[in-house]
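Thread: "does anyone have the structure for this chain?"

Original post by V.I.:
We have the sequence but no experimental structure in hand. Need at least a predicted one for the grant figures.
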Amino acid sequence: MTSRWPVRRPTEHAALRAVGRRPRPLPEIPALMAALIVANRAADRHGANLAAHRVVRVAEGVTE
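Reply from O.Q.:
Generated one for you, tokens below.
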């Protein structure tokens, strides 16, 4: 069995470039608000922060 060294793995830069090729559609505001409510009830501050920022992005019409 032969092994090749080093094993090629995608770098973070390549992964970010691949994701940025096409914009992903954001969910509708009611779904994001529901996620915000669930995160607040679960005391998930990070999830609440993410949901709140996404609501603002959708409201402003900003794409990812």
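V.I.: this helps a lot. The chain has three helices and no strands.
O.Q.: and The two ends are 44 Å apart (CA to CA).
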